[in-house]
Design goal:
Helix content: 25-40%
CATH architecture of the largest domain: 3-Layer(aba) Sandwich
Number of domains: 5
Number of strands: 27
Strand content: 15-25%
Distance between the termini: 44 Å
Structural class: alpha+beta
Shape: globular
Radius of gyration: 29 Å
Strand order of the largest sheet: 1-6-7-8-10-9
Number of helices: 32
Length: 864
């Protein structure tokens, strides 16, 4: 085992169905002087990348997937995505939303009902929503039915296929709806009181389904295109389409997307400019407005680059390119914030347009250079830099030396994954693991090798290649999402991913992970370390063939279940989520045996996969051995027959086993961290219910609350300063020094400000309270103090509100000031500051707000 820092440079290329990694010494890229370089017209896309498939219109807007579970991913991706797939799939969306990018994705329908006009989607419980409800109506009856349907009902049309698609979305039906949309749009009221939103969704669904399945729907011609354009002209000519309201935002979003779905991008460049130029950060507080702005960036200004009419229109008037550049430069500082998807997608659009060639490519290329020059590969503007660089390199690779993006994966790796450890056949590439932490993860995986072989009793590798593995570990989820996809080609909507094809001699297996901000019991806090490594071992020693070969039968119960089972059992940790599920008795074993990635959510896939695998190892190891015998020869159908032939034969015994398991039979020896929580407004009360299995007892408790504060009490109460969902984590320690941790989410609703501190002195703070209307002239300081009692482990101080710029300072011994402090928060241009400090003893503490510029109306709050 040897440690080397800094990390070697990683050059990543896509070959066949794998990531090919070669390792080179760092080299300086020769970047041409942009001012002296004449940018030649380029074909779209430029040489160096395979021609991407023209993206389809956007599908339905869906709720985002639930946060990743304790396991890795629901996506069966076992090889890198192509550059074109990544460029589309990794484009950011507003928090809490997802967009259907491929057909036949199930659309959640909270209500498949028809609603009265003006009822804003209040469902009528007895109403019907079937394809026949739409296809059997024509003319005014069809329009009235669409207008009266819920948006959830109309969203189901995005998944129509075959005869249903043709009957509902044929051109004559689309023309009827487009003409009705035009009539409503000319008198648009700024909300959905007339059902105009449902008409938009119907039209979008038609263009989407027809684009994906033209044989089912039939052709659309210029008549429909003209009708859509007339309707959109009426909408964008109305008095209320630019209203900055939540009611307008939802309708505006789909109108803007419809300009793209109908391939009318060339006709609405001025509309797109008005939307982008009209945006301000104040819009972030209006529900849906950021999403409406993003509709321009995510749909027409992206997909329009494949439409010659759009490219020609931009060539005639390239001001939309400078508008994009100005937008990216103006809001670059927000790239890592909650509205960062807007500025990042502006960079995406510029990078894509750089590949259009001619005057469009030249104009976009200049803006790409400006954006890359004004942002950085690391830090708060990194998401903007990475996305802009990736798309410019993908679509305008010939000019990579101009942009400084040549061999982009190597450039990103060298900048971010700067620590490395070679551990036998494993190479760790990490962002911030120390030498000691790298040794910890190396030791863990070395031991896991032996554990795995003893568990599955293999006879050696069953695939010819993939004998070494790279394990990339990012410092946090944000960096994983920012960099991982551009380096390794993986999807990032997950908790980690393993990419490998051990049948390909050019493939380099890689597991990509990140560290959690709270203790989840993994070595060095590398989330899913042992789960992902089990995927690698299982793929080498148990599953002959590619991942696609494995998925020809329902074997996800094994693939994900054995990874979970080994991860918890090897680490000697109780799978608390699985124990809770065992008590619920939700599934039969025969049902879990039919798990696929399509029919199983995270709960059915991971904790129930764990339970099924554990049961089979404990009660029927002979069946496991027989199944693995088929897996190891590539006979996946034969393996399926082994466990499928059991039918329901083990269901009753499995159910009894679950009862015993939940009662404690499946708990690991030592401590298991468990707790209950109750929430009252912004305050959460936590009750420790941890258990000790075997000898010893629990002697210590440590809580982190997800906002930077913590407690060592057994049953603490904590008050949050702001509403939101936080991760509470409990770590318990027993008399032998063994530890166990478990996290859980809590959602709190905080008042706009904490209660006013009660001390009569206005410069005295207290526990979980605030002082408001603080003001100072430039160069002066507002001083505060507070008493921290014994047993308080952390203190969080925040300032917010008002106008002007104020810096926050803290000192444990003296009046805090810009020249006397031990902690500070100095965000530029605002009074919004926060700092968290660790407290070890009781005593007075000192806080101040320094007026960088004159400020007024600020509030200072404390939490402990």
């Amino acid at each position: 085992m040897r440690l080397r820092i800094p990390l070697r440079t990683l050059a990543t290329g896509v070959a066949a169905s794998c990531v090919t990694a070669t390792f080179l010494l760092p080299a300086s890229a020769a970047v041409a002087n942009p001012a002296a370089t004449a940018k030649a017209p380029a074909e779209a896309p430029a040489s160096g990348h395979a021609a991407p498939t023209i993206p389809k219109p956007l599908g339905a807007t869906l709720p985002a997937k639930a946060a990743p579970s304790s396991a890795d991913t629901l996506s069966p991706t076992a090889k890198p995505l192509t550059p074109a797939q990544l460029a589309q799939a990794q484009r950011p969306l507003p928090p809490g939303t997802s967009v259907q990018l491929s057909p036949k994705t199930p659309v959640p329908a909270a209500s498949l009902a028809v609603r009265p006009k003006g009822s804003h989607n209040t469902p009528a419980d007895t109403a019907s929503c079937t394809p026949a409800d739409f296809s059997t109506r024509t003319g005014g009856a069809l329009v009235s039915f669409v207008e009266g349907s819920t948006t959830d009902c109309v969203n189901t049309l995005f998944n129509l296929t075959g005869g249903d698609a043709g009957a509902v979305l044929k051109e004559s039906q689309m023309l009827t709806v487009a003409n009705a949309y035009q009539a409503l749009a000319s008198h648009y009221t700024g909300d959905d009181s007339t059902g105009i939103w449902q008409l938009e969704l119907f039209l979008r669904a038609g263009w989407y389904v027809q684009s994906n399945d033209p044989a089912d729907v039939g052709s659309y011609d210029a008549t429909l295109t003209s009708a859509n354009q007339a309707a959109l002209n009426a909408f964008f000519g109305s008095a209320h389409w630019q209203d900055v309201t939540a009611a307008n935002a939802q309708v505006l979003y789909d109108a803007l997307v419809l300009t793209d779905s109908a391939n009318l991008q060339a006709n609405y460049l001025n509309v797109y400019k008005q939307v982008l130029n009209g945006y301000t950060s104040a819009d972030d507080s209006v529900t849906g407005m950021d999403n409406a702005v993003n509709a321009v960036l995510f749909a027409p200004l992206w997909r329009g680059n494949w439409n010659p009419a759009f490219v020609n229109a931009v060539a005639a008037d390239p001001s939309i390119i400078s508008t994009l550049g100005n937008f990216a430069l103006t809001y670059k500082a927000a790239a890592s914030g909650t509205a960062g998807f807007l500025v990042v997608n502006a960079g995406n659009d510029l990078g894509r347009a750089a590949g259009d060639g001619g005057t469009v490519g030249t104009a976009a290329g200049r803006q790409v250079q400006a954006v890359l020059g004004a942002s950085a590969i690391t830090g708060t503007t990194a998401p903007l830099w990475v996305h802009t660089a990736y798309d410019a390199d993908t679509y305008d690779a010939a000019d990579c030396s101009v942009y400084g993006t040549c061999n982009l994966p190597a450039k990103l790796t060298s900048a971010v994954l700067t620590h490395q450890l070679v551990c036998d056949n494993r190479t760790f590439e990490t962002e911030d693991l120390t030498a000691a932490e790298l040794n910890t993860v190396c030791t863990s995986l070395r031991g896991e090798d032996t554990f795995f072989h003893n568990l599955v009793k293999d006879s050696g590798p069953v695939n010819p290649y993939g004998k070494t593995i790279d394990l990339a570990v990012f410092a946090n989820q944000a960096d994983y999402v920012t960099y991982s996809w551009a380096i390794f080609g993986n999807d990032t909507d997950n908790g980690g991913e393993t990419l490998m094809d051990a049948t390909d001699p050019t493939d380099q297996p890689v597991s990509v992970m990140y560290r959690k901000s709270w203790n989840d019991g993994f070595p060095a806090n590398v989330w899913n370390l042992n789960h992902e490594y089990t995927h690698y071992l299982d793929g080498i020693y148990d599953m002959k063939g590619t991942f696609s070969d494995e998925l020809v039968v329902p074997d996800i119960w094994w693939i994900e279940g054995v990874a979970e089972y080994e991860s918890y059992t090897y680490r000697g940790t109780t799978d608390t989520e699985a124990m809770a599920e065992a008590a619920n008795h939700t599934y039969k074993l025969s049902t879990i045996f039919q798990n696929t990635y399509d029919n199983s959510d995270t709960v059915r896939t991971y904790p129930w996969g764990y339970l099924a695998v554990r049961y089979m190892f404990e009660k029927h190891p002979d069946v496991v051995a027989a199944m693995l015998g088929h897996f190891r020869t590539g006979d996946f159908q034969g393996a399926y027959q082994v466990y499928n032939s059991i039918g329901t034969g083990y269901d009753a015994d499995f159910d009894s086993w679950l009862t015993a398991c939940a009662a404690g039979a499946c708990y690991a020896q030592g401590p298991t961290a468990l707790f209950d929580s109750s929430v009252n407004g912004a305050t959460v009360s936590l009750h420790d219910t941890s258990v000790q299995t075997g000898g010893g007892s629990i002697t210590a408790w440590h809580w982190t609350f997800g906002d930077g504060s913590s407690s060592d009490q057994q049953n603490p109460t904590h008050t949050y300063a702001a509403s939101g969902t936080y991760t509470v984590d409990l770590t318990v320690t027993d008399t032998s020094g063994r530890t166990a941790s478990t996290p859980a989410s809590v959602t709190v609703t905080a008042p706009a400000t904490l209660p006013t501190c009660t001390d009569p002195r206005t410069d005295a703070l207290g526990q979980n309270c605030s002082r408001s209307n603080v003001s100072e002239t430039a160069g002066n300081t507002a001083y505060f103090y507070l008493w921290l009692p014994a047993g308080t482990s952390t203190l969080t101080v925040t300032s917010s509100g008002g106008t002007g710029t104020a810096a926050l300072y803290y000192d444990p011994d003296n009046w805090a000031s810009p020249s006397t402090y031990t902690a500070s928060s100095t965000n530029a241009g605002t009074t919004s500051q926060t700092l968290t400090v660790t407290n070890t003893t009781a005593g007075y503490r000192y806080v101040s707000l320094y007026a960088v510029t004159g400020f007024s109306g600020a509030t200072v709050s404390t939490q402990f």
